[in-house]
Amino acid sequence: MLKCIAIDDEPLALRQLDAYIAKTPYLESVGACDNALEAQQLLATQSVDLIFCDISMPDLNGVDFVRSLVERPMVIFATAYSDYAVEGFRLDAVDYLLKPISFADFSRAAAKANSLYELRHGQRQGQAPAEAEPRDREYISVKADYKTSLVKIADLVWLESESEYVRMHLADGSTLTTLFRLKNMEAALPSESFMRVHRSYIVNLRRITGYARGRVYLDNAEYVPVGENYKEQFLAYIEKNYPNL
Predict the structure, then answer these.
(1) Strand 223-225 with 175-179, pairing
(2) Which residues contact 79 (CB under 8 A, 6 or more apart)?
(3) Is this prediction's pTM over 0.70?
(4) Which distant-in-sequence residues (6+ apart) come within 8 Å of 44 by Cβ?
(5) CA 137 to CA 135: how far, in whole Å?
(6) How does pLDDT run across 34-82, given as a tens digit for each residue?
């Protein structure tokens, strides 16, 4: 359960954030503040995991408020002005919500925060992070969509990096998105079957159907680019195993 506060100087927006928090089962509200100074006082007495914070507020704006925190919880910024997005992410904000905020957008951002919390909490307790782990070299287990799923390695077609997430493209056309970095997936998958061909992509070598003009073609006519730093290794594999490709 993530303990969180909402901060917004607009009464309607603050009530909406508080209502969204109440509807989300893994969030617990410990306060709603209509200005950053009130939030500072609350944080002095309450332990908080996540802050939903408006940026444009009188006296002390959200960015300066978050920057002033010595012990900084996770932050999701909310504002009507998209120009603030870059500044928000410089503070390592979990996400950025543009008003008016739909519950779907709120849920997506909250789920990202919850996944980050689970990963960090597990590491602090000395547990293995929630990353892909080989299971008899036939399956990997990943946390996605609020559950742990067993994915058959042979069914992975290709994987792409999305910042702190990896999107897994499966043979049946479905995808799974889970929280960890591509380099961890690269280490977990069998090197004889999978190769990193780009800083953002890993491909299943058994699923390759063609190669041309710096592109690897895969099942279902999908393709991914081959990065310059990975081209020599990939071409050596192709020449050795598929001389006529």
Answers:
(1) unpaired
(2) 54, 55, 56, 62, 96, 97, 98, 99
(3) no
(4) none
(5) 5
(6) 999 999 999 999 999 999 999 888 888 888 899 899 888 999 998 887 6
DSSP per-residue letters across 106-170: HHHHHHHHHHHHHHHHHHHTTPPPS--EEETTTEEEEEETTEEEEEEGGGEEEEEEETTEEEEEE
Token duo for residue 64:
């300066």
List CB contacts of 199: < 8 A, sequence separation 6 or more. Answer: 161, 182, 227, 229, 230
Give the three-state DSSP class for 219.
helix
127 HSE (CA, 13 A, CB side): 9
For 146-204, what is each residue's pLDDT tens digit? 666 778 899 999 999 887 788 899 998 888 888 777 888 888 888 889 999 999 999 99
d(CA 42, CA 18): 16
Q: Residue 137: which residues within 8 A CB-CB, separation 6 or more?
A: 153, 190
Question: Quick one: which of 31, 34, 35, 36 has its CA closest to 46?
Answer: 31
* 100: preceding bond cis by omega (within 30 degrees): yes
Q: What is the mean pLDDT of residues 24-28?
A: 91
Which two three-digit tokens encode residue 101?
């905020």
Phi, psi of 240, rounded to the nearest 5 degrees:
-75, -40
Helix H or strand E segment including 225: strand 223-225
Tokens of 196: 């990193």
Share of the chain above pLDDT 70, in %: 84
Strand partners, 140: 134, 151
State residue 63 phi and psi, 5-degree precision. -65, -50
Ordered domains of the chain (ranges, CATH): 2-124 (3.40.50.2300), 133-241 (2.40.50.1020)
